[in-house]
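Subject: design request, 211 residues
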């Protein structure tokens, strides 16, 4: 009887050892691999960042119209460089407040070096929450740096001003313009002496006596 119980205990102990061995050896050399969704999420994030950088557009200046709780402000407007006599175009981002709609734009005027700028898109009227891009054009008349001012008049009568500046280079000159063409001069015609030698007076032939 005692031997039977001992055999049963040995068998039970062997089963416990086998179960522990199976539990510890499940890892193997393969190991665990990163889940697929993490890679997909990472790739999706990179694509989103690239899209944001590509779609970003810069303007030459910015004007914030303000609201009852926020004061209006404007940055300087730097026009792209150009040549004398060639127009340059400025683009200004007009932004409205998120704390309620500000007054609309009644009038926009740009003056550079005493010359009025041409308004292409003045953004008059109410400004939507998405904002508006004001576009104007100026043609410099002399080389060098120039300055001016952009004035925006709101419906309530208040005015927002932004400084405008830029630089123009001299107009290119072609080789034809830089070289003065002189009219051809005709050389006076002079009688050139002949080189046949001096002329001698005609001599009368004397008859030869007959033989």
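Subject: RE: design request

Done. Sequence follows.
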């Amino acid at each position: 009887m005692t031997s039977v119980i001992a055999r049963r205990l040995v068998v039970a102990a062997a089963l416990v050892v086998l179960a522990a061995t199976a539990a510890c050896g499940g890892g193997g050399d393969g190991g665990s691999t990163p889940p697929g969704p993490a890679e997909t999420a990472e790739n999706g994030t990179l694509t989103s960042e690239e899209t944001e950088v590509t779609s970003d557009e810069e303007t030459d200046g910015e004007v914030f119209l303000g609201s009852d709780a926020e004061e209006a402000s404007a940055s300087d407007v730097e026009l792209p460089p150009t040549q004398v006599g060639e127009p340059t175009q400025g683009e200004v981002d007009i932004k409205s407040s998120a704390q309620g709609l500000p007054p609309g734009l009644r009038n926009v005027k740009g003056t550079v070096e005493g010359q009025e700028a041409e308004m292409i898109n003045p953004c008059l009227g109410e400004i939507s929450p998405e904002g508006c891009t004001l576009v104007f054009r100026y043609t410099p008349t002399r080389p060098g740096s120039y300055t001016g001012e952009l004035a925006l008049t709101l419906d309530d009568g208040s005015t927002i001003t932004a400084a405008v500046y830029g630089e123009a280079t001299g107009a290119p000159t072609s080789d034809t313009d830089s070289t003065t063409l002189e009219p051809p001069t005709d050389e006076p015609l002079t009688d050139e002496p002949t080189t046949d030698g001096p002329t001698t007076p005609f001599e009368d032939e004397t008859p030869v006596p007959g033989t």
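Helices lie at 2-24, 36-55, 175-178.
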